[in-house]
Design goal:
The structure holds two protein chains of two kinds.
Chain A (H helix, E strand, L loop, with lengths): L28 H9 L2 H18 L1 H5 L12 E9 H25 L4 H4 L5 H5 L21 E8 L5 E7 L6 H14 L8 E2 L5 H10 L11 E4 L8 H11 L2 E3 L4 E3 L5 E5 L2 E4 L2 E4 L22 H6 L4 E3 L10 H4 L2 H9 L6 E2 L3 E2 L3 H9 L4 E5 L9 E2 L5 H13 L4 E5 L5 E6 L2 E10 L1 E4 L3 E3 L4 E5 L13 E10 L3
Parallel strand pairs in A: 1-22, 3-12, 5-6, 5-10, 10-11
Antiparallel strand pairs in A: 2-3, 2-19, 4-22, 7-8, 8-9, 13-16, 14-15, 14-16, 17-18, 18-21, 19-20, 21-22
Chain B lengths: L4 H33 L9 H6 L3 H7 L5 H9 L8 H13 L7 H17 L6 H25 L4 H26 L13 H11 L3 H7 L6 H10 L7 H12 L6 H16 L7 H27 L3
Helix pairs in contact in B: 1-5, 1-7, 1-8, 1-9, 5-6, 6-7, 8-9, 8-11, 8-12, 8-14, 12-13, 13-14
Classes of the chains: A alpha+beta, B mainly alpha.
Chain lengths: 482, 310
């Protein structure tokens, strides 16, 4: 028996596995019981086995690091996070609702703009956003879907409820780790699986293929789907290769594709040009087509936008989808759900203060020490100020930034992110976490069972990004006991 | 299942670079034998290796004397020399890195390991003491990788372009090795009569052809018979003829193969018409020169047709 379980205390936070009274939650009971029975040496051995497995599976990930690259080994905690299936079902429905509304919004913005005309969302915050692409106006992709793959970040607050923290609609990444984490747990803690029925996650690539194939402009049995990568030096290349292989699709670079006079996209193969139907692009839209966006881009395909506009090729996510991926626009998602779907939001957003509004701004400036301030357009956890964890000097710096450019900042209350037992050194300690499920939308909608749980390995830290000391956990959605 | 041109090109070059590393190692090993066997004073210089590899200009840019130390450093430890063993292995690795998904899983690991080994050991393997072990290791690893590919790869485009690259590079290197016996070192006809059998024996060793030669031709090692054997022996996988047949066979199923097949036929015709028994050393040398140009043409046609089509 590992003693540290006995003294485990998560304080005021919601803990994913352990109740405030120190008892395992129902869904986690079997797993916790087994983990408790493992002495420290055994836990260390399992952790070492996990590290080895990561090294083996992730060799690709570390060898690309010559010359002090950004990639590191992926820190993984062997204690899984367990969520009951019935709780998850509600979250899942809420996510699909949200993704539908976001897609309605994007489609509306590039076409009728009725939500702006009706004054539900202020026009200037959308049309002046750098993520609004005038080049996309007038286009309506198949099914009206622009963001086919959405990675939404969820947090669980002290009340035990899930909140959406942000929606990533451009090129969300991390799904390969969701699949790999399960693989690792199966290898190093196989006993855990005995008493559970856990929803599988490894069919993600085939789900993705189905979604992408449903977008094909040509009605053929096996449309040609490709994954467009910026290349080996991109930090997510591992994932690009993983998904391409999982879908049986070609992993292409910009130079492998060309667009002919009929606006058809082809890939260059040894059997001659092959007609491409769907492009899962993992390059930023700025680099996608030098004819339209950045001229100096060598990663893109000249003419790709022409082909897309002509409806000859589907691109996922569609260029321009990022217009809804803005922390100011985020604040309006509940209104979008009511406006487009005539429904009440099933999953909550975090209350958000928009510094562009005078009242909100005054409140934010007065309460900097209690709030989290975020730039509207950054990802990866950069440029964020966590008020309670920052010094007065940092508060002053952000006050200045906000006054200079109010449109670019939002603030949210500091959330008490939920915790889960995490194996640190030789003991089990609470660490904060979030969750990134992936929502697929094409002809049909689908949500990953669970998603990628990211955990802040530093004690008390709320920042889970892997670029800033975060790790990850396997995430289980479990059905009632067998 | 088709294949991206870029992927095909990378596989082709991976195979060429691996073959180049292996053959360079063989060449250095064989040449070292010659140098050790030939009586002091009459042995040819180390610069011969440079002319075989067409590397004189690059070498002269950075080194002064073409002595043993410098030439060996240039060939087995110099990353600035693009055709050195470490450069070839590095280039092979770069090509495997982005084509891992079409190769057996172990291929990347093996090539990566070899790369790390060469990085670590090449500096200290320039001297005679460690050189032999180093070269042997490089050769045996390359053979392992080839064996892995031969026994595990589906006979589709990936195998095809790997084989094309390997056989083209091999034909090129075989003729270069023969050129040792024909070209620069033996400018004066008959100057090395006494050591001729030693020389040709070493060259056969370098091509891993000694055993096969003995069985097919007999125990006597003699220039014309050796040249004929490594050029035209039908059954021996390291003969030029065998390589050309393999190339023709792999080109067969490819789309738009007319131009490439035409160049292969030209090479085969050239080889058929060359008779080592009547050619002087000078003629042999000129033949090899012109034959290598044909091989260059073939590589250019392959590139234009399948890797960088209009």
């Amino acid at each position: 028996m590992n003693k540290s379980w006995k003294s485990y205390q998560s304080g005021d936070f919601f803990d994913e596995l352990i109740t405030p009274k120190g008892q395992p939650r129902v869904a986690a009971r079997q797993a916790v019981k087994l983990l408790q029975s493992l002495p420290a040496e055994e836990m260390n051995a399992r952790r070492a086995a996990a590290e080895l497995a990561i090294k083996e599976m992730g060799i690709s990930f570390t060898v690309y690091t010559e010359g002090g690259n950004i990639d590191r080994a992926w820190p993984f905690d062997i204690i899984p996070r367990v969520i009951p299936a019935k709780d998850w079902a509600a979250v899942s429905t809420g996510l699909i609702q949200r993704s539908r509304a976001l897609n309605c919004f994007i489609d509306d913005i590039y076409n009728a703009q009725s939500i702006l005309k009706d004054g539900v969302v202020p026009a200037e915050i959308v049309l002046d956003s750098p993520n609004y692409r005038p080049e996309c106006a007038g286009i309506s992709p198949r099914y009206g879907v622009w963001a086919h793959i959405c990675g939404s970040d969820l947090v669980r607050a002290a009340d035990g409820r899930f909140y959406v923290l942000e929606d990533n609609l451009r090129v969300p990444s991390g799904v390969s780790y969701m699949v790999e984490n399960r693989e690792i747990t199966k290898r190093v803690l196989p006993e855990l699986f005995e008493n559970y029925s856990i929803l599988p996650v490894d069919d993600y690539p085939s789900r993705l293929y189905k979604t992408l194939a449903s977008l094909s402009p040509r009605d053929i049995k096996r449309p040609c789907v490709v994954v467009l990568t910026p290349g080996i030096y991109n930090s997510a290349y591992f994932e690009h290769a993983f998904l391409a292989q999982g879908m049986g699709a070609e992993l292409v670079e910009g130079s492998d594709l060309f667009v002919d006079d009929s606006d058809t996209v082809y890939m260059r193969t040894v059997d001659g040009p092959v007609h491409v139907d769907v492009i899962y692009r993992r390059i930023d839209e700025d680099f996608m087509d030098p004819e339209v966006f950045r001229e100096d881009s060598t990663l893109g395909v000249p003419g790709l936008m022409r082909a897309w506009k002509a409806g000859k090729v589907a691109i996922a996510n569609a260029p321009g989808a990022g217009v809804a991926d803005d922390k100011v626009v985020y604040a309006y998602v509940p209104d979008m759900i009511r406006y487009y779907l005539k429904e009440e939001p099933l999953i909550e957003s975090v209350p958000t203060y928009l510094c562009m509004r005078k009242d909100d701004r005054d409140y934010v400036l007065k309460n900097l020490k209690d709030l989290v301030v975020k730039p509207a357009n950054e990802s990866g956890g950069y440029g964020i100020m966590v008020g309670p964890h920052s010094t007065k000097a940092v508060h002053r710096k952000f006050a200045k930034l906000i006054k200079e450019n109010p449109r670019n900042y939002i603030a949210q209350p500091t959330l008490s992110l939920s915790t889960a037992p995490t194996y640190i050194d030789d003991s089990v300690q609470p660490r904060h976490l979030d969750l990134r499920p992936f929502i697929l939308q094409g002809k049909d909608s689908w949500v990953t069972p669970g998603g990628l749980t990211r955990v802040a390995l530093v004690k008390g830290s709320l920042v889970v990004n892997s670029s800033q000391g975060g790790g990850s956990k396997d995430t289980w959605i479990v059905e009632g006991k067998k | 299942m088709t294949m991206l041109s870029r992927v095909a090109e990378r596989l082709y070059w991976m195979a060429r670079y691996l073959e180049r590393a292996e053959d360079t190692a063989r060449l250095v090993m064989a040449y070292q034998h010659i140098i050790m066997d030939i009586p002091k004073g009459s042995e040819p210089g180390w610069d011969v290796l440079l002319s075989i590899l067409d590397a004189n200009p690059v070498f002269n840019e950075r080194y002064r004397a073409a002595n043993e130390q410098n030439v060996l450093k240039f060939l087995i430890a110099d990353l600035d020399n693009v055709s050195s063993i470490p450069s070839s292995i590095k280039a092979a690795r770069e090509n495997v890195r982005t084509t891992r998904d079409v190769l057996p899983e172990e291929a990347w690991e093996m090539v990566n390991e070899l790369h790390l080994y060469v990085q670590e050991k090449s500096e200290t393997s320039v001297g005679r003491r460690n050189r032999h072990a180093f070269l042997e290791h490089v050769i045996s690893r390359c053979q392992m990788i080839n064996g892995l590919l031969m026994s595990n790869l589906s006979r589709d485009h990936s195998y095809r372009f790997i084989k094309l690259g390997r056989l083209l590079e091999r034909s090129d290197m075989i003729t270069r090795v023969i050129d040792v016996g024909a070209g620069d070192i033996l400018e004066r006809e008959g100057a090395f009569e006494a050591i001729d059998p030693l020389l040709w024996g070493a060259l056969l060793q370098g091509l891993s052809a000694m055993g096969a030669y003995r069985r097919a031709v007999g125990p006597l090692v003699e220039k014309n018979a050796v040249v004929e054997f490594v050029f035209s022996e039908q059954m021996f996988p390291r003969s030029v003829r065998f390589c050309l047949s393999g190339i023709r066979e792999e080109l067969g199923p490819l789309r738009a193969n007319k131009d490439a097949l035409r160049v292969v036929e030209r090479a085969r015709r050239k080889l058929r018409r060359f008779d080592p028994n009547v050619a002087t050393r000078e003629e042999l040398h000129r033949f090899i020169d012109s034959f290598q140009l044909t091989l260059n043409d073939l590589s250019a046609v392959i590139t234009d047709t399948w890797f960088q089509p209009e």
